[in-house]
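Recap from last week: sequence in, structure out.
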Amino acid sequence: MASTPQKITTFLMFEGRAEEALTFYMSLFEDAEIVDISRYGADGPGKEGTVQRATFALAGQRFMCIDSYVNHAFGFTPAVSLFVDCETEAELDRLYAALAAEGTELMPLGSYGFSAKFGWVNDRFGVSWQLNLQE
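Predicted structure tokens:
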């Protein structure tokens, strides 16, 4: 039986750093892949070579991203975050260290009662990640 396409996809809008972000995210997960990517050409409207639209998968979950050619007065907010259940403490520690580098720690790694080990960070692109040790 063929798998059903994902109906709802998280969409990430960057302003010139989409490829850098998706390359970084793909380096964090073994089962990551670029599904497709298209770039702006010389005729625009975005800067030539930047991401017009990309679809990529991390741990079986699809995401889309773009480089918006319009400057916005808003960015990402921790009100929406990517929640990752980690199978091992080593995986959680590795992801936390990578995502926190040049980012902002919102909740340092620790035991918070609802989880034996949990951490929350905004990465260097402003995307918010909650990392949880799966029990």
